[in-house]
Hints:
Helix content is about 55%, strand content about 10%. By secondary structure, the protein is mainly alpha-helical. It folds into three domains: about 5-45; about 50-95; about 100-190, Homeodomain-like (Arc Repressor Mutant, subunit A). The radius of gyration is 27 Å and the shape is elongated.
Amino acid sequence: MAIRFSIALRPNEGRHFSSRESSVSAFEARCIKDAQYSRNDAMKPVRTRMTPWQARCIQGYVAAHLHGMIKVTDLARSASYELIQLNRAFKESFGCTPHQYVMRQRIERAQNIMLLSDDPLDQIAAECGFGSRSHFSRLFRRTVGQRPSAWRRLQASLRADALHENHEPAPEIINRGAYREYSDGRLRGKPCGAPKG
Length: 197
């Protein structure tokens, strides 16, 4: 005598089995599958931290494309990530969002250009991928604490004073991840940028 069971595998869908063994094994398989792919587990990526090669790919892509528009989908593609997983893995690996990382890299490049050339700020803003000088100035002031022109004048005067008085190099910016450490010991910035290792 065979006992018939009806087990609902999905809403509005039933399966009939002709024996107790097949229904129990199908039920067990469905429970295992539900445990593996529950809603909470499906939203969590298996690996949240980027591998070193993926972090290097993203750093290289950002450095090569700072002058233009950088889309998160392009970053995900460059590191072989799904778009949904990238934000969590990026924040876990770099300590900030992709947008924050790109903006900090642009500010850092602008600082280097300002130290090495006398180009106008409009040109520097365009070279670093900012839409306008006002956007560049606003973000620079928020990140560094000074307007770009004031920062440039200060750096030039520090260098000139050091050359004339002590014949020692002026305090220069040493990059420590996202912190800007000056040789006189001051730190500026937020912890974002270098991959956590």
